[in-house]
Each structure stands twice: as structure tokens, then as C-alpha cells.
Amino acid sequence: MTVLASALDTGGSDYRAHRAAMLDKLTALEAEHAKALAGGGEKYIARHRERGKMLARERIELLVDPDTPFLELSPLAAWGSDYAVGASLITGIGVVEGVECLITANDPTVRGGASNPWTLKKALRANEIAFANRLPVISLVESGGADLPSQKEIFIPGGALFRDLTRLSAAGIPTIAVVFGNSTAGGAYVPGMSDHAVMIRERSKVFLGGPPLVKMATGEESDDESLGGAEMHARTSGLADHYAVDEADALRQTRRIVARLNHRKAQPDPGLAEPPTYDEDELLGIVPGDLKTPFDPREVIARIVDGSDFDEFKPLYGPSLVTGWASLHGYPVGILANAQGVLFGPESQKAAQFIQLANQRDIPLVFLHNTTGYMVGKEYEQGGIIKHGAMMINAVSNSRVPHLSVLMGASYGAGHYGMCGRAYDPRFLFAWPSAKSAVMGPQQLAGVLSIVARASAVAKGQPYDEEADAGLRALVEAQIESESLPMFLSGRLYDDGVIDPRDTRTVLGLCLSAIHTAPVEGARGGFGVFRM
Fold it and tell me: What is the structure's pLDDT at 95?
């Protein structure tokens, strides 16, 4: 075994300062997560309970197998917007009757579970994850449909939700809808387009148009039960495949549906894996509060991979990018981790070769981000940094093995792309509270704008207002700083969640298990032209 040696001084002042800064960020993150957990607030939670109903997270807890984890995805969706944190929808991966499933649950305590633009984005991301990893989809439905004031942002793109359900089914990926309350208008197509539909006596209401709309459209008088109740759909329309007496019974029947799916993973789960040699708690003190200060990503790798065992690839070539082979919870992985922040030509070439090797061997790739981007300057431009960076991005773009990305520190510029940022379709992407991502750092961006403005003034023969320049720089720096923080980015679903560094091994392990439900097959050629 090639066990990584650690040089981390956990008693040193730097480590203690880094740890304290990370703990402060985690406290702030916990406060934001609490907003999602609070749903619509005490008033609406109390009203929901008075109706004899479970909360959305309680439904999920009763659905999944006892003592198994639920990996919640995008919990900060809509953060920083006018909508509730979490976007009135819970999504995640849980195990039901031994089968990993993608679970979605409307939160009816938030505006009746109505969908806003961020709800739609979150639901579409969940479907994307289910399709890529062949995970059965269970929809726990209770929603009044679109949040009407924002319908212009929902109606047209919202049709993709129903398209996704049919495409999942066509691909042999099971879909199950469990209706706990309203599923009206377009929402009626969720049970209508799912493979299996479970409805609850005197609870489920599924119709394209409710009694008021029917009255207005046709003059017909009707009531909820005869128009779209569970018993009607079970006895008359045939939309309900399973008729439950209450919520607990509906979840019991859903578990039985999953047990009978005969849904099999493409690859068996590995056996028990040896934990890392070093304490995961030490991950809190590795990333500096100032991301300009470099850190050794091997210290992170040593605390997340099995047995801290890592076989490095090309260790002396392109040293600001660490590449190598390991296993994580028994699954083989290739790891690319930024060491000194900047990517040069050798690092880019090394990455391209490593990615090709992983594809030859059908090995998933893990990208650990801490990069300020590709190196700039006359020497590097003449040395071919553009074509070398393009080679790395080409390899990432055309790689077919699953990619997992974790933003630990900086993730700026095209370096974010080369390290498989969101636009490059990683199967999952998570961020630490210490991460930052933007086109470039705040000071650099503000400085560029200042230089351009100064040159423009000189060209026009006008005096330059230094006081206004200082104010503009401060304003731009503050804006870019706020827009590069992980909660801002997570609110826009540019990642799948901001996680505690200590949970990194567990989160990646859950993702790798989900990934291996589908076949893992690399590209055998099929890369674009590499400019040499």
C-alpha cells in the first residue's frame, strides 16, 4: 500500500485559525439550512398537523429503510431570492426496500406546495440525476400547482417535468407517484404519467380543473370527491393503481411497489472498505481562510480515501495538479486535485492523459477544486497555454465515466471548466463553505475594470476621477465577493449542496453507490482533436 504521509500540524496556530474560520462558516450554513427545515413556519406547520397530515420530511423518513441515510440535494435552492429557502420542494437519494431511489416531496406548508421558478429548476435537476444514474423516482405529491404570480417563468419550461417522466419510463427507470393532497391542473399529469400511482382515501385530489374552473368552463356543478377523489380514480377512472386508507398505508404500499420492481444495480456494491488512516475531523483546518494561501490537497485526499492509500500519477510533472488512483468506500476512483491554484501547460497535458486512462479503465473521476484558473502572461501565451488548457477541457468534455466535483477553495475562470464545473455535467457537484467561484477573484475583476476605465479616459484626453475609481472598485469587489460565495451559488443550483468537509467521504460514497446503479463505461476514443 502507498499510504499518504501527513504533514498537517493540528496543534499549530495556522491550523487552529483555519479550523475556527471553517466552524464559523458552518454555523452560518446551519442557520440557512434551518430555514429550509422550517418550511412555511410554525403557523402553517400547525395548520398542516391539525389536518392530520405528516410533514414532507416525516413522509420521507417513513418511506426510506430504517437507519439508512437520506442524501438531500439542493437544500438551499432559492436562497437569496424572494422565495422560501428550499423552494417548497425536498429532493434527495434514499434507500427503499434496498433500492436506491430519487425521492421528491412537495412541502405543502410553503404556499401550499406551489411551484415557483426555483422549484422547477430543482425538480428538473432531480430528474437529470435520476436519468443519468438510473434511479427509480418516487414523487410524494401535494401541491396546488404553479405559484400563479410567477407563472410566466414556470408554464412554458415546466412541461419538461412531464416529458422527463415519460422518458424515464421509456428508459426502463420506474416512476411512482404518491398523492397526499392536491395534484391539480398540470400537476395531475404527475400521477398520470408515472408508472405507478398511489392515492389516499378522502385526501388525494387529482383533476385537470377543480370544481370552480369546471363551473366556469362548462356550467357543471361538481365536488372534489366525484371530480377527482381517490375512490373515484380507484373505482371509475382507473388512474389510481393503489388505494390507501391513510398516509402511513400509502407509504407502506409504496415500499411494496419498490420491493416488486425487480430493479437491479448494474454493478454489485463492494464489501466493507478500510477507513482513512487520519481523522476526518481534521479536514476542518486544512483550507486557509484566505484562499490566496496554497494548501496541499493530499491532506484532503488522505482523509477521504480508503486506508489513505493513494497511488499518484506523474508526481514530478505538472506538480500544481495532483492526479492519482484510490478507492473510496470500495469503489475505484481517479482523483484530480489542485495543489498550488494555477494550472500551467504541463498540468493540463497531465490531466488530459489521466482522464483518458480513467476512460480506458471505466473508473469514475473525482475533481477537488482549488484553482485560480489557467496561467496568463506573455511567456505562457507563447508557450501554448490556450491549446494546453483546451486539451484538458476537451478531455473533460468528452469523458464518459462519471465525474464527481467538490469545490474546496477557489474555482475561478476556465479552471472551473477544466476541473469539471457545473456546465460540464458532473453527476454530482458539492461545495465546502470555504469555496468561492466566479470568472475571477473580486480584486482582479475590479482591477481590470479600473484599468479599462483609466485607459478610456486617457484615450479621450479626459482627467481620471481617482475618488470615483476607488468607490467603483470597492462596490465591484463587494458585489463579486457576495456572488462568489457558496450559499449564493447553491441558491441558484450551481451545485447540489454545500456540505460539511467532515461529511465529504460519506457524501461521495453515497454518490458513488448511486452512480453504480447504471453501467460505468468510459470513452474508447471519441475525444475531439487535441491541439499539440
Answer: 98
The CA-based dihedral angle spanning residues 248, 253, 257, 260, taken in that order and rounded to the nearest 10 degrees: 120
Is the per-residue pLDDT at 136 higher than 90?
yes
Any residues with CB less than 8 A from the CB of 251 and at least 6 apart, and which?
59, 62, 63, 178
Which set of grid coordinates corresponds to residue 217?
Answer: 368552463
How do strand 311-313 and strand 321-328 relate by DSSP bridges?
antiparallel
291 and 239 inside one domain? no
pLDDT tens per residue, range 426-466: 999 999 999 999 887 777 777 778 888 888 888 888 888 77
What CATH number has the domain bearing residue 110? 3.90.226.10
Distance CA 12, CA 333 (A): 32
Element holding 427 (H helix, E strand): none
Mean pLDDT of 367-392: 92
Task: Spell out a b/e string for 279-310, using b for 16 or more CB atoms within 10 Å of the CB, else e.
Answer: ebebbbbbbbeebeeebbbbbbbbbbbbbbbb
* DSSP secondary structure code for residue 493 in this structure: T
433 and 447 part of one domain: no
Q: What angle do CA 470, 471, 476 make, to 5 degrees?
A: 100
Residues 348 and 456 in one domain: no
Q: How many domains does the chain have?
A: 3
With contact defined as beta carbons under 8 Å apart, do 277 and 11 qualify? no
Instruction: Name the one residue in this structure whose C-alpha cell is 414523487.
Output: 139
pLDDT digit string, tens, across residues 299-326 = 999 999 999 999 999 999 999 999 999 9
Task: Measure Cα distances from 421 to 57, 162, 391, 397 in Å.
Answer: 30, 27, 16, 10
Same domain, 420 and 450: no
Domain presence at residue 419: yes
Crossing angle between the packed helical segments 466-483 and 442-459, to the nearest 10 degrees: 150
Number of Cβ within 10 Å of residue 110's Cβ equals 27
- C-alpha cell belonging to residue 497: 449542496
Whether residue 213 is contained in a domain is answered as yes
Q: In terms of DSSP bridges, do strands 331-338 and 321-328 run parallel, antiparallel, or are they unpaired? A: antiparallel
List, in order, residues 6 or more apart from 14 with CB less than 8 Å away.
288
The length of the chain in residues reads 532
Helix, strand counts (H, E) of the chain:
19, 17
Mean pLDDT value of segment 242-267: 97
pTM confidence score: 0.94
Structural domain that includes position 457 = 442-483
State the first-to-last Cα distance of the chain, in angstroms, to the nearest integer.
Answer: 36
175 sits in which H/E element: strand 175-184
